[in-house]
Design a protein that fits this description.
By secondary structure, the protein is mainly alpha-helical. It is built from three helices and no strands. Helix 2 packs antiparallel against helix 3.
Length: 71
């Protein structure tokens, strides 16, 4: 009888350990990155994009205005 209880205790313990292992996210890597860009850097980036021909004059002016008006 004692051996049967020990066997069940072992089975329950192993099952619990395996079940808890599945709760750890499966080894997925979670990254969080926060970046901030100053208005000056945003304006420089816009100017470079405009000079490179990546945006029209209207797009450049619209985005420039948006950056300058943002908090």
């Amino acid at each position: 009888m004692q051996k049967r209880i020990n066997t069940w205790a072992l089975i329950v313990t192993v099952a619990a350990a395996l079940g808890m292992g599945a709760c750890s996210g499966g080894g997925a890597e979670i990254k969080s990155e926060i970046t901030t860009t100053t208005k000056g850097q945003q304006l420089l980036d816009l100017q470079k994009a405009y000079e490179a021909g990546a945006m029209s004059k209207d797009e450049y002016e619209r985005e420039r205005k948006r950056v300058l008006e943002s908090k």
